[in-house]
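Progress against Task 2.4 (sequence-to-structure conversion) is shown through the following example record, which the project officer requested during the mid-term review.
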Amino acid sequence: MDRSQINEREFDSMMEVILGNPGHEIVIDNGASAFIPLSSYLIDNHALELLAEHGHVMTIHTIITRGQTLFDTITGLDALVTQFPEDVKFIVWLNEYFGEIKQDGKTFQEIKVYQMHEERIKKVITIQKRRELFEQDMQQMLKARITFDETMRLADFQLMTKHRLQRIKKELFAQMEGV
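Structure tokens generated for the chain above:
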């Protein structure tokens, strides 16, 4: 960020780091404010082709949520798959915090966008809506900006909180098997 604007020149520095680390998996976790500029940068600068030439494989994780953002997140998935090259694969996270992901009574796998792009979607992972204590524990962990494993080492997390978080981790990691 350069004051309140995204400085796209900084994406060049990010590319230097990625290209300078062949054979490593690199995760770029960007927020909503940088999503469109980063996507535009990757497409406009043919950065994905350069990454592929250097042996990197691009996988994009995207989230689908229910409620007011359902249409936007489904439309966003369609735009991503359409704009990115064929060799880019996608992992779709269905966040059921606001309820089960359904559009006009159809599950995610039954809707048109999924069926149009099924061959590009490598995996669908569901983040289930949980009971209140589980949700509070996740919020505590996310607010602290730490990982599941880090919670195990901190006294701020009680034993039952750690137990619930480990159950969530186990379920999510089982779904991510093979990704």
